[in-house]
Every structure is written in structure tokens, then in C-alpha cells.
Amino acid sequence: MAQVQGLGKRYLKAFFKGFFVAVPVTVTFLDRVACVARVEGASMQPSLNPGGRQASDVVLLNHWSIRNYDVQRGDIVSLVSPRNPEQKIIKRVIALEGDIIKTIGYKKKYVKVPHGHIWVEGDHHGHSFDSNAFGPVS
Known about the structure:
Elements: H1 2-32, E1 34-39, E2 57-62, H2 63-67, E3 76-80, E4 88-95, E5 100-102, E6 110-112, E7 119-121, H3 131-134
Antiparallel strand pairs: 1-2, 3-4, 4-7, 5-6
């Protein structure tokens, strides 16, 4: 009986040691390297969330590329919503700094993307709150 109690103590001790190592490593990974996000809504259909309200896609967001400013046209990025700073939105990069873009419903018909900014749009035009509503994003 004492041997079983000693075995239980060892397993419990090993669990807590592993826990206190795994939690900081996981938090650092999710903050610095990548994290998982759920995509809801129709703005990125049909690329993401093709099932609409019945299902939602899960994506892996790469923090490493953004940290090094390695963003290309066609990349899908996550950014803070200009309408609600507590909400994140997911859009596709359409243009990079210096590019001239023909807009869809923006206050100007053509926009030159300023230095340090990108132009983002949802894949489902007309159902997306994107740069056509709020302009270039830094």
C-alpha cells in the first residue's frame, strides 16, 4: 500500500513539473510563433468558411512572418478591426506599399498604398468589411 502511495506521489510530482514547464513554453509559442484562430462569417468565402454559418474553419496564424514584415500579395492576414478594436478580422492582402489599387466603393476610385501599409479585402466582395470601407492598414 505504501508503495502505491509513493508511486502516486511521483506521478503527481512529475505532472506538476511538466505542467510548469509546458505552460510558459506554450504561451511563448502562441505569442511569438503561431496561434490557432477560428474563422466565422462570409467575408472570406469560398476560400475560408465555405459552409457559412453551419461550420467554421480553423486557421494557423503565423506571427513569425508578420514580425519580419514578410507579407506578400495573396497572403491571408489577421488584423484588429477598425470598427471594434476587441475583434480580429481575417482578410487577403491585395496590394503592398507603393501599389496603386482600383477600389470598390472607397471614397477615391484609385488609391496609392502609403509606405508601411497594405490594402486588404475579403474574397466575398460585397459581404466584407475591408480596406474598401476603412482604407489602407499599417
